[in-house]
Amino acid sequence: MTHDPFEIAYDLFPASEIPFLERAKSIARRTRPYEGLKILQNIPVTMEALHKTHALLLGGADLTITCPSFMDPKPEALSVLDAAEVKIAAPDDLPTEVDIVLDCAGELLRRVSPKLGAVELTGTGTNLYAAADDLSYPVISVDQSRVKVLEALFGTGDAFQRAFSTLTGERLQDNSILLFGYGKVGQGIAYALRPHNCRVAVVDPSPDALQLASRHGHVAIPADDITAVEDAAASAFVVVTATGRPGIISERYAAAPFLKAGYRANMGGEDEFGPDFDVDTVLVDKKPINFAITHPTRIRFLDPLFFAHNLGIDLLRQFDIKPGLHAFPGFMAEQILAEWESLFQVDVNAVLQRQG
Description:
This protein has helices at about 5-10, 20-30, 50-60, 75-85, 125-130, 145-170, 185-195, 205-215, 225-235, 250, 255-260, 300-320, 330-345, 350-355, and strands at about 40, 60-65, 85-90, 100-105, 115-120, 140, 175-180, 200-205, 220, 240, 265, 325. By secondary structure, the protein is α/β, with parallel strands linked by helices. The protein folds into two domains: about 5-145 and about 300-355, 3-Layer(aba) Sandwich (Rossmann fold), CATH 3.40.50.1480; about 155-285, NAD(P)-binding Rossmann-like Domain (Rossmann fold, 3-Layer(aba) Sandwich). The model has no long low-confidence stretch (mean pLDDT about 95).
């Protein structure tokens, strides 16, 4: 196998933007830590993700790649993988014997049973693994760590506003946004909307989340206040879902008020609008809109997240972790976050506080 095709990805992103994966690749070249390990990786196939993939290959992994159902693989990334002779599996032809699964949106749950365990990247997938009370292997959730704040607060919100403008040709400036979910992704979207002077209303079932949204200057609407939610939907310029819960809108509310909104956009890993909405009534056929653009999330925000996702392999191999869901270790997440803040001169806590 030749790794030369990955030079295309190197040319796109300077090393200064991916300090963690650069380190991981350097160590992988020297130590070959994944030699012979059968790994199935299910993450968006993008040019950004090639750096993460390359680190696994340099480390000797017997690697198979598949792509989540919520997006099409980026053709330019597929070309690199094909040229490097990386195994690419169709969703209906996954390998049956796998040591470790690197998952996204929980799509490999019930489809592959890894010998050593899985590492999950997203909140959607974390919810699915948490609900599976018969797991026979350990699952480490990177989403349940502070590392995810970087992607969610800075990356995903920025990607939302870039994707919306690219897909619609419309400006968000001075418009009303109805946002479902005020977790990490929801907060990131609201943060990215601040420069646009948007009027943001947040719907969430959690009193704590609503209180936080109110402190940040947004209108807070309890999820069980059906009338208030539907009235807000009918008058919104954009309705955005970021709950991590599939079908949540169809499950709780009438579709008609939502169809009066100017646009409907999903930012979850699964269809959060549900069966009451035809695919042509939601942007990008109800798939997450950020993955419809060439560079969904800027790589400096993905770099520490991808690094942590790969680190999950070492945790599963080196420690006796019981079956079930486990958060990525907090002390490791804080070390990664602190180093990222130092490298890019950003105080994440200060940014969070400034939201209010």
